[in-house]
Structures are given as structure tokens and as C-alpha cells.
Amino acid sequence: MSARPGNQQLCTLHERRGAEGTTELVATFYEPGDVDAIARTVLGFGGEAVCAIDAPSGRRLDLLAPGQPLRDQLGLPEGRYERMRVCDALLFRRRLPLYPVPAAQQGLAAWEGWMAQGFALFEALDALVLHRPQVPADVLGAPHGDGALAFGRLAETYPDAVFCSLLGHRPSAKRTPWGLQQRIAALRLRGVVDDDGGLWHRTLDELDACAAAYAAYALAAGTGSWVGDPREGVLLLPVPELAERYEPLPPPARLPLA
Questions:
Q1: Does residue 116 form part of some domain?
Q2: Is the pTM of this model over 0.90?
Q3: Among positive and negative, which fits the CA dihedral 52, 56, 58, 60?
Q4: Total domains, the chain
Q5: Which of 13, 67, 186, 229 is the most exposed place for a label (fewest CB within 10 A)?
Q6: What is the 3-state secondary structure of the chain?
Q7: Would 54 be classed as within a structural domain?
């Protein structure tokens, strides 16, 4: 999501039979638009569409506030993660940091305008039903598996975490050549193709939208997973299980000067 109302991005993926019987995921990119235009387009695909949004699905419910039982279940140190959603804390501990989400009674700061756009898009796409797995209260993450769409076709994701989970490490910053190359490779190795010149022609925002679309595809295919507390909102990832931590690769070797 973008803080600029008219700059929301949409990317879709659909399957196509490729060479030697492989399955390709054809990426289609749309011109930027506002929340209403994005929602009209997505809902125009019909009720079978699956959508992942790069924005929080709702406010923080303070399930990790001091004294809450989930803190002991997760083994959180005192004074840490108290103003995070459960899904955010589970990612943050793996070195996948997210922006803090305000509590229900808090207003949004000026820099958080993109979250307001996200809340509006979730509301506009409510017909797809927000994804809330029906699990015991102590389950805070699990693989999707078959039948995951019965719990909703609309969900939250986070492109940075999508790329890290696909690569198995933290890539370089996306505005660097190596960081951009790693992100594009992560998508291409999963069969994502862009017939209109290739992913190298796309903007950083478009690549993030494509990563969100891949998370939605993993939900539809039952190959991904979710983390969080369904009461507060869960976050989709396109891998069946997260690593304990996502570290950057070591820097390339450099010899000392004479």
C-alpha cells in the first residue's frame, strides 16, 4: 500500500502450462489507482479470487501487553514487544521487522497514512472474507494445507518477509543492484514470468505487489503458512514453515591495501 491515495498497486498471477510440462505463473501488472479502483478490479474477477494486501488487516488488540498470557506462551522478555501485534512479534524475533500498528483507540500519525489506505482496502474487499484460521487458542501459526480457503480469501502479507522466506536470508536493500537481482530471482525461480519485457522492467512497488500476489497464490495452492493470532489478524507467507532467523549474507571478500 502507498500513502498516496492514487498510487495503489495491483499485480495478479494466473497459471499457464510452460515448457516441458512446467507451470508458469504469469504476472499481470495494472496501472496505479485508488482503493476503489483496485477493489472494483479485484472483485470483478469473481468470488474465487484470492487476495493478499501489503498492509495491516486491523488495529492492534494489545494481546502482548504486560500481564497478557500470550507473553508467557511466547517467552517474551519483560519490556519487549508490548506494543506489537502477535504476528509482528513472531516475525520481528526472526529479524523480519514490521512497522508498529496502532491500537484500536489510537489515531494514525501522518506517516501512517498508508495504513488507513490498507484498512480501507480490506473493508472494500470484505466480500472475499478476511482469512481467519479456526485453530485452538494456543496455535499462533501453521501451514495452510488443503482447504485453507474455507477460512477466507483475503489476507495480509508483507513483501519483505515474502522475499526473505523465499530466499532463506535477508537480501541486500532493494534499491541496490544485488538486492533487486535477488528479489527478481526469488520470483522467477518460483515460476513467475512477465511477458511484457520481464521483471527487470518493473518498479520496486510493482515487485512488492508481485510478491504479495505470490503469497496469495501460496494460500490458494495450500503451500504457504500463516503466523499470528486469528483474533487480531494473521499474516501470510509463501513457505510452509519459517526459519528461526533471517540473517544477511556475509559481505564479499576485500583484500587489504598495501
A1: yes
A2: yes
A3: positive
A4: 1
A5: 67
A6: CCCCCCCECCEEEEEEECHHHCEEEEEEECCCECHHHHHHHHHHCCCCCCEEECCCCCCECCCCCCCCHHHHHHCCCCCCCCCCCHHHHHHHCCCCCCCCCCECCCCCCHHHHHHHHHHHHHHHCHHHCECCCCCCCCCCEEECCCCHHHHCCEEEECHHHHHHHHHCCECCCCCCHHHHHHHHHHHHCCCEECCCCCHHHCCHHHHHHHHHHHHHHHHHHCCCEEEEECCCEEEEECCCCCCCCCCECCCCCCCCCC
A7: yes
Does residue 245 fall inside a structural domain?
A: no
Domain that holds residue 22: 11-237
**Other CB atoms within 10 Å distance of the CB of residue 179:** 16
CA dist 169 and 181 (Å) reads 14
Measured between alpha carbons, how far is 22 from 41 in angstroms, rounded to an integer? 29
pLDDT, one tens digit per residue, over 128-183 is: 999 999 999 899 999 998 899 999 999 999 999 999 999 999 999 999 999 999 99
> pLDDT tens-digit profile of 18-71?
877 889 999 999 999 999 999 999 999 988 999 999 999 999 999 999 999 999
**Residue 108 located in a structural domain:** yes
